[in-house]
Amino acid sequence: MRISTKHLLTSLSALLIAAPTHADPLTQPAAAKHGTLSFQTTGNVTRVTINNGPINIIDPNLITDLLTYLVSIQPSTTTTTPKVVIFDSSNPDWFLGPLDTVLTHNPITQDKITATINYSYLAPLLQNITTTAFIAEINGRNIGGGHELALQMDMRFAGPNAHTGFFEDGLGLTVGGGGQLFLGQLINKGRALEYLLSAKAFDGPTGAALGLFNEYYPTGAALTSAVNTLAQRIGLFPQDALNDTKSALDNYLNPSPALLATDVTNFLALNDNPVSQALQTKFLALSDNETDGAFEKNLPEDITELYQ
Fold first, then answer.
1. Which parts of the chain are coiled coil (predicted)?
2. d(Cα 104, Cα 286) in Å, to the nearest integer?
3. Average pLDDT, the chain
4. Pick the residue with more confidence: 185 or 9?
5. Which residues are 165's β-sheet partners?
6. Closest by Cα among 46, 124, 50, 128 to 81
7. What is the bridge-based pairing of β-strands 45-50 and 37-42?
């Protein structure tokens, strides 16, 4: 089943939200339906901790929990929008894993299509909730779709275990949820193509030097302390100012909803290709259905094993 660009553009545009007109105290978010997220609120800051199996894979459960949470903090749906949301992980080895390849591997069902489209809604929400600054605190592997989500947050800070990159081109696909557009914006076109086309990985110091990460910290404790200090400082200031500042930069720098929608439709078209489907079959076999084995742990570098 193909999803038209017009359909996606209409859906993504519907996620645009209004500026806040309130400053009510935050309440603790509702528990995540599938238990893949936990929440800790301090002042105007909410820390969201990801916990979804051995590699924090982006599967329908995590997609649903992320989408539900992001929708719930839109000013149009609540009077307690956080000024800052920090995403971290309970898994010391993984910040976020890839989008579950099972979702794109034939046979394609309606449930798989729904999950994939819901995943594509996450990027516009991260951008269009301009009342909240989203920070990724990365101290583990952050691969494929997980790397894409981190790129779409407002800031990224890396610890000593950060290891992040894309492998989608190795599957005959593209980074189709907007990630390649944000990567090009952050580190320039030439460097983005170098890392996308060759499936190279960034470590913390390299990513910080290129502008992918705001800063690299040599210990996990230093990383968390610095992120908390920054978030609490931002949380002191009026939310209207945060909203206008983020809105201005988003309007000037971010890819348009039309470009994001085109990215998704191009991904879906490539996914129909028998070559890509064959590569995905081999990928699932080598990764033991995307478990925490040696192949998965060494992505994106190991993607070349598909061609041996």
1. none
2. 17
3. 92
4. 185
5. 143, 201
6. 46
7. antiparallel
Percent pLDDT > 90 in the chain is 81
71-122 pLDDT per residue, tens: 999 988 877 899 999 999 999 999 999 999 999 999 999 999 899 889 999 9
Peptide bond into 300 cis (omega under 30): yes
> What is the model's pLDDT at position 33?
95
* Cα distance from N-terminal residue to C-terminal residue, the chain: 32
Cβ-based neighbour number of residue 258 at 10 Å: 14
Question: Beta-carbon neighbour count of residue 267 at 10 Å?
Answer: 20
- Checking 297-300 for CB contacts under 8 A at 24+ apart, the result is 297/93, 297/141, 299/98, 299/141, 299/143, 299/144, 299/165, 299/167, 300/143, 300/144, 300/165, 300/166, 300/167, 300/170, 300/199, 300/200, 300/201
4 pLDDT above the threshold of 80 = no
Is residue 1 scored above 50 in pLDDT? no
Prediction pTM value: 0.93
Q: Long-range pairs for 37-43 at CB < 8 Å and ≥24 separation?
A: 37/62, 37/65, 37/66, 37/69, 38/90, 41/82, 42/232, 43/232, 43/235
Indicate the SS3 state at residue 74.
coil
pLDDT of residue 21: 47
User: Of 42, 18, 8, 14, which is closest to residue 28 (Cα–Cα)?
Assistant: 42
Least confident stretch, 218-227, 254-263, 281-290:
254-263
Q: Give me the sheet containing 141-143, strands edge to edge.
A: 94-96, 141-143, 163-165, 201-203
Q: 162: part of which helix (H) or strand (E)?
A: none
CA angle 189, 191, 196 (to 5 degrees): 90
CA atoms within 13 A on the CB side of 74: 19
- The answer to whether 269 touches 2, Cβ cutoff 8 Å, is yes
Q: How far is CA 193 from the centre of its chain?
A: 19
